[in-house]
């Protein structure tokens, strides 16, 4: 299959902003039967992704990090920065507080093979598709790639 991402992607994906309330984002996910949303800023540039797994923190809460006590001192056995980030996600009320801001994206001119490789190698289920200016123009999922394979 020698198709480009532009030929297979879903154009004009539904997006949210960092200021979008979580309840609204959850409603969008459920009503549209999708598992994630690209997050864009005021200029339309991709700044993050919010997915079902990001939202699970809301329901599951956060386990305190393991620690040991020696005399009157507490020694944490895990990185406290990670714990603080988990608390922030569990208590967040907006998309910006919960989203993943380390976004993996792909340009529309890239090959579908490259997109499939990224989806396989990274623990992600969707790739936002951006143009040269970093603005989102589509989204490609594992399902999109499978549909393209079935048509070949």
Write the layout of secondary structure elements.
Blueprint: H1 5-8, E1 10-11, H2 22-32, E2 36-40, E3 46-51, H3 52-60, E4 67-70, E5 73-76, H4 80-91, H5 95-98, E6 106-107, H6 112-121, E7 126-130, E8 136-141, H7 142-151
Parallel strand pairs: 6-7
Antiparallel strand pairs: 1-8, 2-3, 4-5, 7-8
Helix pairs in contact: 3-4
Give a nutshell description of this structure.
Helices cover 39% and strands 22% of the residues.
Description:
The protein has a four-stranded mixed sheet. The protein has helices at residues 5-8, 22-32, 52-60, 80-91, 95-98, 112-121, 142-151, and strands at 10-11, 36-40, 46-51, 67-70, 73-76, 106-107, 126-130, 136-141. By secondary structure, it is of the alpha+beta class. Strand 7 and strand 8 (136-141) form a beta hairpin. Helix 3 (52-60) crosses helix 4 (80-91). The chain starts with a helix and ends with a helix. The protein is globular and about 65 Å long. It contains seven helices and eight strands. 39% of the residues lie in helices and 22% in strands.
Mind telling me the C-alpha Rg?
A: 18 Å
**Mean pLDDT over the residues:** 83
**Which band does the percent of strand residues land in?**
15-25%
Total strand segments: 8
Structural class: alpha+beta
Low confidence ranges: none
């Amino acid at each position: 299959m020698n198709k480009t991402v532009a030929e297979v992607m879903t154009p004009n994906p539904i997006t949210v902003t960092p200021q979008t309330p979580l309840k609204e984002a959850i409603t969008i996910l459920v009503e549209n039967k999708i598992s994630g949303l690209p997050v864009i800023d005021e200029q339309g540039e991709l700044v993050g992704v919010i997915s079902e797994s990001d939202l699970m923190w809301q329901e599951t809460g956060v386990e305190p990090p393991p620690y040991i006590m020696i005399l009157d001192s507490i020694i944490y056995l895990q990185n406290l920065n990670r714990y603080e980030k988990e608390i922030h996600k569990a208590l967040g009320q907006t998309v910006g507080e919960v989203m993943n801001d380390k976004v993996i994206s792909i340009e529309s001119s890239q090959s579908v093979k490259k997109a499939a490789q990224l989806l396989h190698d990274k623990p992600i289920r969707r790739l936002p598709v951006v143009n040269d200016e970093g603005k989102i123009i589509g989204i490609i999922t594992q399902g999109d790639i499978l549909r393209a394979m079935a048509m070949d």
